[in-house]
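Bump. Still looking for LRP chaperone MESD structure tokens.
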Amino acid sequence: PKKKDIRDYNDADMARLLEQWEKDDDIEEGDLPEHKRPPAPIDFSKIDPGKPESILKLTKKGKTLMMFVTVSGNPTEKETEEITSLWQGGLFNANYDVQRFIVGSNRAIFMLRDGGYAWEIKDFLINQERCADVTLEGQVYPGKGADENEKGKNKTKPEKAKKKKDAEKKPDSIKEDNRATKQREEL
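Sorry for the wait, here they are.
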């Protein structure tokens, strides 16, 4: 193939040249995107079989994790911004790298770079006066600011319970499932 003058290169030619340069270039593990990094080895001696959270802590270590936080009362979006900003500042002062995103008038997402610290951060948040609840890995943990009827229970995926109730209301309808051995209705 005839060599092109570098001044005549277009964007496609520059992209091919960059690919050639990067082909043999070794990228450090820390620079790889999270989904391409090899998982950290799990030390099974640190797992307490009585505490399922210890397993989650070890499996989420080094991975990005998000938790939902609800502010109690009926705050405006600005009040939620101020309250969660104070919580984020407290976590920052304790050397926790947390990013915060407001997703509603009383809800925020806290994104953690290292999910291994999620349960420590959850413990901090549920001890705040205006924290109604924290949702982490499908578990809802009530906070100090929760209603009295919500404090007594630790909910797991309330959507599933609602779906079960709806299915129980319709006894005549056929319940579908994802099993390979689905029974056929006689015609």
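The first helix runs from residue 11 to 23.

Edit: fixed formatting.
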